[in-house]
């Protein structure tokens, strides 16, 4: 009689042991995985009801949490919604998070390991956890100036401190109102759902972050990279390059034209940059080859993800292009594609005597008691050019602004260098308009890139910097 009882007891003990192991496994090793499941409504309800920390521009909150009387207890809101939406992103019950709300979710929610002491004190005192504050690098005046200047055009503006990599303005238009997505009126017919459908159905794609998370043909602004590659690979600044009116692309029956006279059959790179001569730069590209162009582009940040604060896009230079494709790539066409952020990095690197700094958007994280939890320190990405070559290219960019295609970006009494650009899209659409520039005043060096997706004016007006250059000028003036 005792033997069956003992066997039953052993089986029960083993089963309880396995149950304990299974519970321990789920609680210790699979907790984060289970918490992150999209169908875990309990965790979503709990997280959505947290008192999230603020996102600041200067001392002004651009994302805040306020108490409510509904089941979620707290409402996330955005006081200057469309102005900062590409930066803050949204915080929605059914549609997750984006922007800084996503990247710094654990800090804003107060669950990050860096806030462990605060979390323990909250548990001991039975207080509702409060999230940390995210401090951005954005300059409010520059952001407002850029947003107003670009107006209702589709495009983007990025401003950077060339010496540190701090992003001072980041605008993407058209923008959107994240307050509607953060609404507690959820469900199929709720405010949040209607807003989500409307935003995703909008052909203008307001949810697209054109400044950092989208890439486009950079057109003639890429000639800065080609010029840098020429200097870094031994080209004499006074060397003359063939600049015919048309260049037959190797292996094709297609001619590459110039948009305006280049100033002679043979010209220097400075002259070619000044008037944006396609055929001269195509010949430079053919002389250098794809590998040297790609290497130079990568030194400026192409081929790797930039601005991790927003999970920025990877700009690209094509793999294994043939000779005609190399010629087109040298002027920023074919499969070359870059974000406005990336072209701001190129300009900043040149202006910073060849040193490219890693871009960043968050300067620090502060706890609920305002103590500094973490701080971003400027970090060098690469040395894209020697200081001597960078200063030579700076001089060429100043020529572009003083007497070339970028005269609309000139600021009296301030050193300004720039480069205009256009890029072909599809035959039924106007070309993209670009302008990238830097300005130096005292110990400050600022880079600004403007991208206009649909300029709706003649191509010649775009290439002359009619629209993009004045926008960059106004942003630079606001910062200097």
Question: SSE layout and pairings?
Answer:
Blueprint: H1 2-29, H2 31-35, H3 41-48, E1 55-57, E2 60-67, E3 74-77, H4 81-88, E4 91-92, E5 96-97, H5 99-103, H6 105-109, H7 116-124, E6 133-136, H8 140-150, E7 155-161, E8 167-173, H9 178-181, H10 191-201, H11 223-232, E9 241-242, E10 246-248, E11 255-257, E12 266-267, H12 269-275, H13 278-288, H14 290-299, H15 323-329, H16 340-351, E13 355-357, E14 362-366, E15 372-375, E16 380-383, H17 387-403, E17 415-423, E18 432-441, E19 444-452, H18 459-463, H19 468-479
Parallel strand pairs: 1-6
Antiparallel strand pairs: 1-2, 2-3, 4-5, 6-14, 7-8, 7-19, 9-12, 10-11, 13-16, 14-15, 17-18, 18-19
Characterization of the model:
With 480 residues, this protein is of the alpha+beta class. It has a domain at 219-362 and 380-479: Beta-lactamase, CATH 3.40.710.10. Helices cover 39% and strands 19% of the residues. It has 19 helices and 19 strands. The chain has helices at 2-29, 31-35, 41-48, 81-88, 99-103, 105-109, 116-124, 140-150, 178-181, 191-201, 223-232, 269-275, 278-288, 290-299, 323-329, 340-351, 387-403, 459-463, 468-479; strands at 55-57, 60-67, 74-77, 91-92, 96-97, 133-136, 155-161, 167-173, 241-242, 246-248, 255-257, 266-267, 355-357, 362-366, 372-375, 380-383, 415-423, 432-441, 444-452. The strands form 6 sheets. The protein has a 6-stranded mixed sheet, covered by helices on one side. A hairpin with a 6-residue loop joins strand 10 and strand 11 (255-257). The mean pLDDT is 89.
